[in-house]
């Protein structure tokens, strides 16, 4: 008798999320569709841990007198370290694939190559500069606002993956991480997770005043909108999603959230 989604114990979902989306020493006990579904629903929790860690490092540097700029660099570096740079690598590969102008099969072949092309390099550099600049602005406002930006951006980056794994989004390849998680999350579950993150982020922003409260909610919505636009572009261009596309979605959502949260 097959295991239903409801029968997947919560630890398996958390292990899948942390084992595939972070470098934390978590062993993935199951690699089936049900575990993938639970894991992608837990993805924002993995982002929360990454964001809290990044904020802690940034705040420690601020406490030591480093200044907002260096704290921002460190905050951006932590998610890259905790993911082995896979999301940035996925962003670069996706940019190369989209920028190649070649048919889907050839573009996917380009994305699998180990080297990074000019489109990928330029995209990664600009994204990292935008993230550092936005976080510098946020830390310059206050340590609490910088920490909020770090946590919200990392969480919403993984929420974008939950939404991208929803039913109806196909995989571009028959194998790989993209194929393992494509279409595993029911739409109601994805929407419910998104609403929970929006509400939690808005509540966190409320501690810093009504303006930051509204701005935080807008940052999550802007991040999800940017990720959705990229997702639709990739599914049209590549005929589905890949692990690289998931990485690109995470970095796009994080950057969009940070840009909005940097506004005064």
From TrEMBL:
Instruction: State the EC number(s).
Output: 2.7.8.26
Answer whether the UniProt record assigns the keyword Transmembrane to this protein. yes
Q: Which UniProt keywords apply?
A: Cell membrane, Cobalamin biosynthesis, Magnesium, Membrane, Transferase, Transmembrane, Transmembrane helix
* Catalytic reactions of this protein: alpha-ribazole 5'-phosphate + adenosylcob(III)inamide-GDP = adenosylcob(III)alamin 5'-phosphate + GMP + H(+); alpha-ribazole + adenosylcob(III)inamide-GDP = adenosylcob(III)alamin + GMP + H(+)
The membrane-spanning stretches of this chain are 41-63, 116-135, 147-165, 177-202, 208-231, 243-263
Membrane topology, as annotated, equals: Multi-pass membrane protein
Say if the entry is tagged with keyword Plastid: no
Q: In which pathway does it act?
A: Cofactor biosynthesis; adenosylcobalamin biosynthesis; adenosylcobalamin from cob(II)yrinate a,c-diamide: step 7/7
Q: Which InterPro entries match?
A: CobS
Principal subcellular localization:
membrane
* Cofactor names: Mg(2+)
Tell where it localizes: Cell membrane
Family from the record: Belongs to the CobS family.
Role played: Joins adenosylcobinamide-GDP and alpha-ribazole to generate adenosylcobalamin (Ado-cobalamin). Also synthesizes adenosylcobalamin 5'-phosphate from adenosylcobinamide-GDP and alpha-ribazole 5'-phosphate.
Please identify the protein, giving its name as recorded.
Adenosylcobinamide-GDP ribazoletransferase
Source species: Streptomyces thermoalcalitolerans
């Amino acid at each position: 008798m097959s295991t239903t989604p409801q029968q997947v114990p919560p630890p398996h979902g958390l292990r899948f999320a942390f084992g595939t989306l972070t470098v934390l020493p978590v062993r993935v006990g199951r690699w089936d569709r049900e575990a993938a579904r639970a894991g992608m629903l837990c993805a924002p929790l993995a982002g929360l841990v990454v964001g809290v860690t990044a904020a802690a490092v940034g705040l420690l540097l601020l406490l030591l007198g480093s200044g907002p700029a260096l704290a921002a660099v460190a905050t951006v570096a932590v998610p890259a370290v905790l993911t082995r740079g896979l999301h940035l690598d996925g962003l670069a590969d996706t940019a190369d694939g989209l920028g190649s102008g070649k048919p889907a099969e050839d573009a996917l072949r380009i994305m699998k190559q180990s080297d990074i092309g000019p489109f990928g390099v330029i995209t990664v550099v600009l994204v990292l500069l935008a993230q550092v600049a936005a976080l510098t602005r946020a830390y310059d406002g206050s340590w609490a606002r910088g920490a909020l930006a770090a946590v919200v951006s990392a969480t919403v980056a993984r929420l974008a993956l939950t939404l991208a794994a929803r039913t109806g989004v196909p995989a571009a390849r028959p194998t790989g991480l993209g194929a393992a998680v494509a279409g595993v999350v029911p739409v109601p579950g994805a929407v419910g997770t998104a609403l929970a993150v929006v509400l939690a982020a808005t509540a966190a922003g409320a501690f810093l005043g009504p303006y930051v409260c509204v701005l935080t909610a807008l940052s999550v919505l802007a991040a999800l909108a940017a990720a959705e636009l990229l997702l639709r572009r990739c599914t049209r261009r590549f005929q589905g999603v890949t692990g690289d596309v998931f990485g690109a979605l995470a970095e796009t959502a994080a950057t969009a959230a940070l840009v909005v949260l940097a506004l005064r």
